[in-house]
Design goal:
Distance between the termini: 31 Å
Number of strands: 4
Shape: globular
Helix content: 55-70%
Number of domains: 1
Strand order of the largest sheet: 2-1-3-4
Number of helices: 8
Strand content: 5-15%
Order of helices and strands: EEHHHEHHEHHH
Amino acid sequence: MDVYLVPVGLQRYELYCEVPDEPDQAGVAEPPPGFFHRLVDRFKATIADAERERRHGPPADVPHGRLARIKARTMRWVVESMAEQKLLWHLRKQESACFHYPDDVEEPRAVAILRDSLGRDLAKHRKWLVIDSILMAIFGIVLFAVPGPNIVGYYFAFRVVGHYLSFRGASQGLATVSWRNEPSAPLTELRRVLTLDPVSRESRLHAVAETLRLEHLASFFERSAVST
């Protein structure tokens, strides 16, 4: 797995990776069997459905009934809104990874930025895992007897799964993954891209993405970067 330290400001960085969109069925640590295991499987399937719909449009066999369609759209929206966590979701299954950082940053500082980012992710997702677990239990019980799909309950259930996978990924990255560190000149070039006018910026950004062979880097950079 390759993880990139992307400069999105003069002193701001975001971790980035590109992995296959289809989730696999095996992980380093499987959730416990039973309800939560089934919920994780449902979550992974919804991720795959959302990605296929994004690429190819809605499927022909859409769910029947207004509530069923609302539920499907809501769950896919939840998954899409949590897409930035995919790096952590995949990191939880790794024992080794390559860390690419801008070559104008000293290696110890780049590693410190990586670990600081994973540490903040660990604390954040641990907190929200507890909060959303409580809310899922409350709404699951209160709305259990209400006819039709329990959209609110599913909303918090999917958030629980997302935060659980992210928490495991951050923990894995900090405690278990063996990192190989490699400086990258193209990543340094992205810092210069921040200072360019819009026309020059777009062409140079796509050139860097092509050099790194990262299909979605340009769109990620445009969403995350702060112009100077």
